[in-house]
Amino acid sequence: MKFLIICTLLVMSVYASPLLYNTNQQGSGDNDYMFKYFVKEQPIGNNFGHREMRIGNQVTGMYYVLLPDGRVQKVDYVADENGYRPTVTYLNP
After folding, report:
1. How big is the chain by its Cα radius of gyration, in Å?
2. I need a labelling partner for 2 at 20 to 30 A (CA). Which of 17, 33, 43, 84 fits?
3. Rounded distance, CA 11 to CA 26, Å?
4. Do the Cβ atoms of 79 and 62 come closer than 8 Å?
5. DSSP string of 74-88?
6. pLDDT > 90: percent of the chain
7. Are the C-beta atoms of residues 67 and 56 closer than 8 Å to each other?
8. Nearest alpha carbon to residue 48 among 56, 58, 37
9. Which residues lie across from 60 on neighbouring strands?
10. CA-to-CA distance for 18 and 85, rounded, in angstroms?
11. Which residues pair with 83 in a beta bridge?
């Protein structure tokens, strides 16, 4: 009997606990962010970077990388409730 009471109290305490995460899905600004990084290492030949920003439910950004043939592949993108929409371009040296 004591076991049943303890289990009941435990279940009730779990359901009565407040939510510990943000349930707002309307883009209140709490999850907005921005970051960027760029790497250019001449002796090795590394040249790449990434920039991204989120405002509300929309993420925009771009990234690029130096390809082995000397071209730079650049991807500009938007991601939101309509999906991920990239635009890929290639820049000649």
Report:
1. 24
2. 17
3. 31
4. no
5. EEEEEEETTEEEEEE
6. 61
7. no
8. 37
9. 53, 78
10. 37
11. 80
CA dihedral sign, ordered 52, 55, 56, 59: negative
Which DSSP string corresponds to 4-36? HHHHHHHHHHHHHSPP-S----S--STT-EEEE
Which tens digits make up the pLDDT trace of 45-65? Answer: 899 999 999 999 999 999 999
pTM for this model (two decimals): 0.65
**What contacts 6, CB < 8 A, 6 or more positions away?**
none
Average pLDDT in the 74-87 region?
Answer: 98
> Residue 38: what pLDDT?
96
Q: Which two tokens stand for residue 57?
A: 């439910």
- Residue carrying the six token digits 């650049």: 74
